[in-house]
């Protein structure tokens, strides 16, 4: 049996994010942090510069007019959104070329983006103040699976096959077969990356939001977003997907099950474009 910490510790190539991310984050979190300095740091990395300009001009944000300067993009997005986009870019770069045995990487990234978009849509429906941040949290929510397929691929595949055959919760089977589930592994990974506390807490609590402490609402959003991604993978109808959501999640988010179709439709609207922006090489 393996603990989440043991699984994460055994994958050297996933232990750190690019240094530019940490420099930008330090500036964003500094009391003396400034948009000018953030823009300067962004422009020193050609990949991040290109990605932010692509994203800010994409349908994901819908700003009017062409934005062709990093400073203008940073002003429009604000400090938090710049951090989150830099993080998403850093993750896509860190995993460029990573191929896990027994895992369909193209499908993995498609579902990760769909989960992120669904989480953002749900956050907006819940009037969450930082609903935009839910895109990146949702994008990272299944990273534990990538780590597991890199470290214990046979067991990870066996757990998925058993879950598909029996329709038992995948995380329950993973705990029995492996010793930890993908939410726990993802939480350990994000902790090792020293991301803001809310990221790891929400990801770790996505199956049991009550364990996510102050971030239980974000965890509940992830729980619902997971059902959107699962419905896409299995080819389920939105009505069927809604019935698979724990009633406590609908209550906690103060949403009605009949919204599932609308949430899914909104999330799918930008799916192809956003996947191409971040993961076109996978």
List keywords for this structure.
globular, HDOD, RNase_Y/CdgJ, 68% helix, Hypothetical protein af1432, 17 helices, 282 residues, mainly alpha
Task: Write a structural description.
- With 282 residues, the chain is mainly α.
- It has a domain at 4-14 and 98-279: Hypothetical protein af1432 (Orthogonal Bundle).
- 68% of the residues lie in helices and 0% in strands.
- It contains 17 helices and no strands.
- α8 packs across α11 (182-192).
- The protein starts with a helix and ends with a helix.
- The mean pLDDT is 90.
- Pfam families: HDOD.
- InterPro entries: HDOD, RNase_Y/CdgJ.
List the helices and strands and how they pair.
Layout: H1 4-9, H2 19-29, H3 35-43, H4 46-56, H5 70-94, H6 105-125, H7 133-140, H8 143-151, H9 153-166, H10 170-177, H11 182-192, H12 197-204, H13 216-234, H14 238-243, H15 247-253, H16 260-269, H17 271-279
Helix pairs in contact: 2-3, 2-5, 3-5, 4-5, 6-7, 6-13, 6-16, 6-17, 8-9, 8-11, 9-10, 11-12, 12-13, 13-15
SS field, number of helical segments? 17
* Total number of strands: 0
In whole angstroms, the N-to-C terminal distance is: 31 Å
What CATH first level of the domain at 4-14 and 98-279 would be assigned? Mainly Alpha
Please outline what is shown here.
The protein is mainly α. The protein is 68% helix and 0% strand.
């Amino acid at each position: 049996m393996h603990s989440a910490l043991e699984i994460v510790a055994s994958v050297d190539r996933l232990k750190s994010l690019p240094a530019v991310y940490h420099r930008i984050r330090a500036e964003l979190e500094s009391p003396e942090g400034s948009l000018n300095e953030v823009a300067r740091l962004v422009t020193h990395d050609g990949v991040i510069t290109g990605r932010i300009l692509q994203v800010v001009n994409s349908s994901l944000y819908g700003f009017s007019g062409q934005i062709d300067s990093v400073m203008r993009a940073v002003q429009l997005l604000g400090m938090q959104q710049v951090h989150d986009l830099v993080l998403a870019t850093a993750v896509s770069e860190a995993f460029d070329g990573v191929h896990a045995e027994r895992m369909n990487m193209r499908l993995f990234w498609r579902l990760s983006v769909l989960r992120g978009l669904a989480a953002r849509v749900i956050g907006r429906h819940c009037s969450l103040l930082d609903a935009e941040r839910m895109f990146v949290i949702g994008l990272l929510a299944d990273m534990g699976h990538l780590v597991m397929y890199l470290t214990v691929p046979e067991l990870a595949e066996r757990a998925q096959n058993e879950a598909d055959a029996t329709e038992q919760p995948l995380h329950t089977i993973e705990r029995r077969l492996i010793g930890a589930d993908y939410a726990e592994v993802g939480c350990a990974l994000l902790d090792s990356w020293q991301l803001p506390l809310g990221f790891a807490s929400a990801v770790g609590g996505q199956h049991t939001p009550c364990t996510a402490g102050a971030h239980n609402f974000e965890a509940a959003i992830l729980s619902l977003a997971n059902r959107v991604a699962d419905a896409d993978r299995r080819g389920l109808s939105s009505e069927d997907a809604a019935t698979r959501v724990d009633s406590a999640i609908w209550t906690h988010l103060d949403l009605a099950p009949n919204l599932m179709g609308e949430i899914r439709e909104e999330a799918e609207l930008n799916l192809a474009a956003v996947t191409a922006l971040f993961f076109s090489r996978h």
